[in-house]
Design goal:
This protein has 401 residues and is α/β, with parallel strands linked by helices. It folds into 2 domains: 94 residues, MYOD Basic-Helix-Loop-Helix Domain, subunit B (Irregular); 269 residues, Type I PLP-dependent aspartate aminotransferase-like (Major domain) (Aspartate Aminotransferase, domain 2, 3-Layer(aba) Sandwich), CATH 3.40.640.10. Helices cover 31% and strands 14% of the residues. It contains 11 helices and 11 strands. The strands form 3 sheets. It has a 7-stranded mixed β-sheet, sandwiched between helices. A two-stranded antiparallel ribbon has the order 1-2. It is elongated, with a radius of gyration of 32 Å. The protein starts with 30 loop residues before the first strand and ends with a helix. It binds pyridoxal-5'-phosphate. It catalyses: L-glutamate + H(+) = 4-aminobutanoate + CO2.
Length: 401
């Protein structure tokens, strides 16, 4: 008995000849037919001419899952009825489909999209290292706003805000932290910065007993659409400096001429959407300092550094465009452009706490402790913030340069 199995060998009954499924379609089969009986399995039958049918019976092996979504074992996702039958386009289908079919249908349709790696439009990052991709996927189910639940993610956001504020030369004391927030992109960042300017200006006008129902903002006509959105959504007149032949950015002299007592800020662009050109923020600052002195106003500057914010600090560190200029009170930058993160992250940094009116900050305590928030939306994913932190520490100043 040595070396022989103790248990009796299992006898497997040989399938009876007529039950064996064919490995390939018999020549007599002309086409295939699917019968779907409500509440039962869908079975695909070969349609066999009557003469052949008399000779053999065809039995199709069926996966017994106990559900009515079972398909023949040999059928590929493409052969399943779920992929063959068209789904309604604009109404929710009444029934469910297997996950493989859902995946296949969607990924096939997405093949008609362009290839992101070949897309240079909107300057958005289309490749990140797999290690960062893993971090992003690992946190794709974290709601950024649940700060009590994800305190480390909040801490990473705060580190990013501080690193970017230092990059922009914010005047932050040794024991101070920077004032700023992550956003979904530069557009949200600009809405928040614009709201802060509008509220600060209105408060000042009220204090002086002056009307505050006609705010305006001065920009170049080359501004990105998000400035037009800000103006329309938040009822601020957009005063655009016209471009001239051969000069496609805002002329600071003309901008300052357009400023009046109702101007909540002048917005300058570091990296025009049309050409990538920097506007002369230093000249704008100097002219505006003089105008403010002359009139007694204190019109500030916002820099839309959606693209340039992650370029100038590395390539033109001597260029003064940021918080080194006294009238620059806030700056936005797109993390998903030259911040080198996949789409869905931007940043807005304020010069100091005094530049962000308190009444715009909401305090929530849904999860126990006080959480100040200043964003347009509530829930959002945490992955992009984590990815931004990854890039900042992975590349460092040297890497971005
Ligand atoms: C100068 C400028 N500002 C703002 C934006 C809007 O940025 P986002 O797509 O991050 O909202 C862009 C986008 O191209 C831009 O070029």
């Amino acid at each position: 008995q040595k070396g022989r199995p103790i248990a009796a060998p299992v006898r497997r009954p040989r399938p009876r000849k007529r039950e064996r499924a064919p490995t390939s379609a018999p020549a007599s089969i002309h086409s295939w037919r699917t019968d779907s009986i409500p509440g039962r399995l869908a079975v695909t039958f070969p349609v066999v001419p009557a003469t052949a049918r008399r000779r053999r019976t065809m039995v199709v092996t069926v996966a017994a899952t106990g559900s009515d979504t079972a398909e023949p074992l040999h059928s590929t996702t493409f052969a399943s009825r779920y992929v063959r039958d068209q789904l309604p386009r604009y109404r929710m289908p009444s029934g469910s489909i297997p996950k493989e079919a859902a995946y296949q249908i969607i990924s096939d349709e997405l093949m008609l999209d362009g290839n992101p790696r070949l897309n240079l439009a909107s300057f958005v990052t289309t490749w990140m290292e797999p290690e960062c991709g893993k971090l992003m996927m690992d946190s794709v189910n974290k709601n950024y706003v649940d700060m009590d639940e994800y305190p480390v993610t909040t801490e990473l956001q705060n580190r990013c805000v501080n690193m970017i504020a230092h990059l922009f030369n914010a005047p932050i004391g040794e024991d101070e932290t920077a004032i700023g927030v992550s956003t979904v992109g530069s557009s949200e960042a600009i809405m928040l910065a614009g709201l802060a300017f509008k509220r600060k200006w209105a408060n000042k006008m009220k204090e002086q007993g002056k009307p505050c129902d006609k705010p305006n903002i001065v920009t170049g006509a080359n501004v990105q659409v998000c400035w037009e959105k800000f103006a329309r959504y938040f009822e601020v007149e957009l005063k655009e400096v016209k471009l001239t032949e051969g000069y496609y950015v805002m002329d600071p002299k003309k901008a300052v001429e357009m400023v009046d007592e109702n101007t909540i800020c002048v917005a300058a662009i570091l990296g025009s959407t049309l050409t990538g050109e920097y506007e002369d923020v230093k000249l704008l600052n100097d002219l505006l300092v003089a105008k403010n002195k002359e009139t007694g106003w204190d019109v500030p500057i916002h820099v839309d550094a959606a693209s340039g914010g992650f370029i100038a600090p590395f390539l033109q560190p001597e260029l003064e465009w940021d918080f080194r200029l006294p009238l620059v009170k806030s700056i936005n930058v797109s993390g998903h452009k030259y911040g080198l993160v996949y789409p869905g992250v931007g940043w807005v940094i304020w010069r100091s706490k005094a530049d962000l009116p308190d009444e715009l900050i909401f305090h929530i305590n849904y999860l126990g402790t006080d959480q100040p928030t200043f964003t347009l939306n509530f829930s959002k994913g945490a992955s992009q913030i984590i990815a931004q932190y990854y890039q900042l520490i992975r590349l460092g100043f040297e890497g971005y340069k």
